[in-house]
């Protein structure tokens, strides 16, 4: 009697966890993170830190979850399923920042920190008193931190107006302990350029500027795409370059929703 071959075990994709707030409009936050992860062929998982009422016009309300709920979500995922990378976004309060930082410190996986301070529309998403916790607790556990220029000013007091200023800002951020920093320079005039550095190696990442106002979710999307690359075993420069290419395409394909700023297109490659 012939012996049939055993079916091959299904391949398990890399697992990436986002710890962030929910965006009811679907353009940023947890929703953007999970779309980005699907587009990169990884298994996305989530720890929701806050719920926002949010649309194309702005954030109409935000409610943070209890520390116990955030901790329980994290342990539930990490202890059973495991992770190859973690991305953090909106953490809202000092208590949540410190809770998440302690959980990350005990997890053996690269961490991408998007130090979310305000929304695309200027709505505050991080309590002012939480900034010290971000600097002292969260940044030291980050493999990569991805501040935009407003977040740089919040965290360091440095107002960046040119590329030399980006280098100074990177030094200030690295002084708080992350291994790498991406200073996002898209708000400066001229060709968009980001600076990736660990204080020794330095990469200036350039891309064309697309004439498209529908850019909601760019920060969440970039950080999540970097985490996907790291989960796949890429080194930091490779992961960041690939993530920037992905986000640039998503911005070019961004589309209008509602009466305000629409989202980038996370599925543009599909």
In short:
With 270 residues, the protein is of the alpha/beta class. The protein is 36% helix and 20% strand. It has helices at residues 29-39, 67-80, 94-105, 131-138, 149-156, 163-174, 218-231, 236-252, and strands at residues 15-23, 43-55, 58-64, 85-88, 111-113, 144-145, 180-184, 193-197, 202-206.
Would you write up a description of this structure?
This protein is of the alpha/beta class. Helices cover 36% and strands 20% of the residues. It contains eight helices and nine strands. Helix 2 (67-80) packs parallel to helix 3 (94-105), helix 5 crosses helix 6 and helix 7 packs antiparallel against helix 8. The radius of gyration is 18 Å and the shape is globular. The mean pLDDT is 94.
Q: Residue share in helices?
A: 25-40%
- Tell me how many strands there are: 9
Number of alpha- plus pi-helical segments: 8
Q: What is the molecular shape?
A: globular
Structural class: alpha/beta
In what range is the share of β-strand residues?
15-25%
